[in-house]
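Let's practice the habit of predicting before peeking. Look at the sequence and jot down your guess about where helices and strands might fall. Then scroll down.
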Amino acid sequence: MEVRGAPAEVLLQRPWLPVSISGCQLLAKSWFGETSYHVLLTDVDCVWEERMDSAAIQKRAQELNRRLRAEAKAFFSHLCEVVQPCLTGSDGRPDGEAQISLRRQEDGNISIKLKSELAELPFYWEFHCTPAPVTVVCGQLVRPLLEMSRLLQRQVEQLGGLLGRKDAEIQDYRENGAVLSRERLQTDVFEERTYREDFMSKALPLLRSDALGFDADLQRLYAAVVARKRKPSEEKQAAGASSGAGSVISEAPEDAAGAKMADRPAEQQALPVRPNPAERASSRPKKKKGVGLFR
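Done guessing? Here is the structure:
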């Protein structure tokens, strides 16, 4: 059965952050829900992911912690507190005793093992990350980077044009008798082709292939690029949240016939099913006194 993770639009809004686990330099992007998560990792050679829902988390937790009998909600907040600093590159760690390690497997997968302390007992967790599908890699990494590249290219072209106009303005001043008060302020006329060749010859040797991550300006550019994709999906996301709460939402009519259908009496329209108060009360998990997370 396929495990569902974060919606693509939600995960897309998360930034790629540089992290170091067991000496391995990676870029990480993660989303943690109420009792589910979706993690993406890349070393630029490969992209790995793992997505887990509540049932899968419950099963793995019991396999790794035999004495654990609590539901996922009871320990998932602890897992988030321990692992999120490791996946965001944060220096601070809520649990000073937590230990995390990464191991590359022969089949191309990676395993991240976590050991911490919960209710004064050891708590173990493992992330089993497998190579992500091409669609995920393109949507979460390749396409935003290509759009960032196009935006930066347009910015360079506009700056080149601005420098050309500035040179023409300075030349006009000179032809009308203007003189620099300080000779050191004099600059050469901007030649775009010459500048590009000089820049490439000097910058390429200094380029590091192992340098991962974005600086603050590139992070803002990434956020602006992915935010542009968020607007068309906001209505769908809001509709999905409402339908999940049990309400029925009908699409807006596109013509006059649709408008008439919307004006029919309320008896003909679908009504949300409201659970019986007794059933609602019985469905809530009862808090047991004196029972801890472990037995």
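How did you do? The helical segments are 8-12, 54-64, 72-88, 134-175, 192-203, 216-244, 256-262, 277-283.
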